[in-house]
Amino acid sequence: MSKPKKVVLAYSGGLDTSIILKWLQEEKGCEVVTFTADLGQGEELEPARRKAEAAGVKEIYIDDLREEFVRDFVFPMFRANTVYEGLYLLGTSIARPLISKRQIEIAHEVGADAVCHGATGKGNDQVRFELAYYALDPEIKVIAPWREWDLNSRTKLLEYAETHGIEVALDKRGEAPFSVDANLLHTSSEGKVLEDPNDEAPEFIYQRTVSPQDAPDTPTIIEIGFERGDAVSIDGEAMSPATLLTKLNELGGANGIGRLDLLENRFVGMKSRGVYETPGGTILLMAHRGIEQITMDKGAMHLKDELMPKYAELIYNGFWYSPEREMLQAAIDASQELVTGTVRLKLYKGNCDVIGRASPYSLYSQEHVTFEEDDVYDQADAGGFIKINALRLRLLKARDRKAGKNS
Questions:
Q1: Is Membrane given among the entry's keywords (predicted)?
Q2: Residues forming the annotated binding site for ATP?
Q3: Which of 229, 296, 297, 319 could cross-link to 314 by cystine, CB 3.0-4.6 Å?
């Protein structure tokens, strides 16, 4: 493979990617284009521009992708009620395909022949980025510094930074307490004080949520409106996807909702401990479940629940741009055609409960389920239904008795 000439770097402006920028210039001899994605991480992004300019970068991209992130990635995922290993709402996983997509687009715009990420060789993100790169551009060159260089400790990184005049934030000179990834859907904290899975996460880890014990003593009641499976309003006020999720984050965070301490199975084989905060996403999941309860047919709903773990695993492992994920998405989206209406929720001290739901396409029939007298359901019909379903069980038992089996 020929040596790359121009590379688009996924650049945060932090210690690792600032060192990668210099390393690409000096060790690879590449012209570097930086790309910083605003996914709602809540940080000022202009310092990244200034650092890139100071490093001599001529082409600097800082793109606001918040609406696209929620509309085209988060919402499609939530139509499936997606959770990985029963708990994780995939806040990091779902951001990687969008970052990769825009990185490849920029590479084409500027005539770059390579892309670069700052993911380590131990984690999932290297897989997610690179599977997306190759799916979108099979000929692109990929540079993964953590799999190439010998800067394999924080001490070596700091020494490299000092040698090359790279600005290092004061709190990075000691041991950082933990590693954080954030976007509009969640925050993820890993490493350092969290590496022993038997130690409770300290309170300072949490950035978006108050402790449930410190949350208000009065419940917050909200109503979320849905159209075709996507949330479109809060308390009757129409909102864009990113604005709506931002508001749900505020409401959930203030009520201590969305904390998760998870020991998960990484794609590369090892287990890792992460502490996640997904306040808005937790509310959105409960609300979406609520609107599906009243609008979706039992068979379709149960089938979708069976498909979900596979769909979640595909996203977690980095296969967003795979044909199998797209096939599942088509089925999921088809199921949402009439998932429209409103869901009322109570937020209280870490809990999020559905307390009401309504839809013009409701499948709920009070006439059929009432305990009072009705004219629409003959209870005697249930006897035949039960006997038909019991037939195979009765035949099995008769055979077993004949064979001398008494269990």
A1: no
A2: 10-18, 37, 118
A3: 319
